């Protein structure tokens, strides 16, 4: 797993090398020397220059992008079948973000592993993923292939998320679009309380009485496309 903030995920008291070596020795039957050589190779594979020398450095001596590369090296050193990346680019600028995403994609192809990317950035999803699951209040509201979800969304929450994305075409003096950016009205529900019906119903412009009473179940609405909207399932939207 690659966590959101590498500065808090890495141990500030341990050198980078010891942290990568530790994961190898815990999961694999390596001697300390062999684990250290494997750790250097892992750091080199994710693009950290002078990896052998930087093994003795601590997290605060690395930039944000380099710390995230260390996290990826630690996660991939044991060659997992699945990598879970939880908002891995949130704290990074756009250029470094693109580098980290390209690195994850390259390592995925080399190791032939699956990747679950958790993110709020629909642009990252569009450029990285094959299939997307949209979640709200801990529930899956829609699941589809990337192209199907972006061009033919089947849940009001997904439609609202897509409408919230600022458009480059909508910028500039010749734009037909004026006024403020779209924002989803209301607030997310309090998860400490029981939610009756669809969790998005209080904020949904298409909600009717039954949306607040019946709990929707994720169901197929097209080939490979699932939605948990009662009105979409009934063909009303």
Protein model, in words:
This protein has 237 residues and is an alpha+beta fold. It has two domains: 6-123, Rossmann fold (3-Layer(aba) Sandwich), CATH 3.40.50.300; 130-165 and 194-237, no CATH class. It is 38% helix and 13% strand. Strands 3-4-6-5 form a four-stranded antiparallel sheet. Strands 1-2 form a two-stranded parallel sheet. The radius of gyration is 22 Å and the shape is elongated. The two termini are 38 Å apart.
Nutshell version of this structure?
With 237 residues, this protein is α+β, with helices and mostly antiparallel strands.
CATH superfamily name of the largest domain?
P-loop containing nucleotide triphosphate hydrolases
Number of strands: 6
Q: And the CATH topology of the largest domain?
A: Rossmann fold
The backbone outline, from C-alpha atoms, is elongated
Number of H- or I-type helical stretches:
10
Going by helix content, strand content and strand pairing, the class is alpha+beta
Largest sheet: 4 strands, antiparallel
- The share of residues in extended strands comes to 5-15%
Oligomer: single chain
Q: Please, how many domains?
A: 2
Cα gyration radius (Å):
22 Å
Strand order of the largest sheet: 3-4-6-5
Point out poorly predicted stretches.
Answer: none
Q: Write the CATH architecture name of the largest domain.
A: 3-Layer(aba) Sandwich
Into which percent range does the helicity of residues fall?
25-40%
Give the C-level CATH assignment of the largest domain.
Alpha Beta
Distance between the termini: 38 Å
């Amino acid at each position: 797993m690659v966590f959101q903030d590498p500065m808090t995920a890495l141990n500030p008291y341990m050198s980078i090398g010891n942290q990568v070596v530790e994961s190898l020795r815990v999961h694999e039957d390596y001697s300390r020397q062999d684990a250290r050589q494997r750790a250097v190779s892992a750091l080199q594979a994710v693009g950290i220059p002078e990896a052998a020398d930087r093994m003795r450095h601590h997290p605060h001596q690395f930039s944000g992008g380099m710390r995230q590369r260390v996290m990826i090296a630690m996660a991939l050193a044991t060659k997992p079948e699945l990598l879970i990346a939880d908002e891995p680019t949130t704290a990074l600028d756009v250029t470094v973000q693109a580098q980290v995403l390209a690195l994850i994609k390259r390592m995925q192809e080399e190791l032939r592993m699956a990747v679950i990317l958790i993110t709020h950035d629909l642009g990252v999803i569009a450029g990285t993923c094959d299939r997307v699951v949209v979640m709200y209040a801990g529930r899956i509201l829609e699941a589809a292939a990337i192209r199907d979800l972006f061009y033919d969304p089947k849940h009001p929450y997904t439609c609202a998320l897509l409408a919230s994305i600022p458009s480059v075409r909508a910028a500039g003096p010749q734009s037909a679009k004026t006024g403020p950016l779209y924002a989803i009205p209301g607030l997310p529900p309090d998860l400490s309380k029981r939610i009756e019906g669809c969790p998005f119903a209080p904020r949904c412009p298409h909600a009717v009485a039954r949306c607040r009473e019946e709990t929707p179940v994720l169901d197929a609405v097209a080939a490979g496309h699932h939605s948990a909207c009662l009105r979409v399932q009934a063909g009303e939207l």
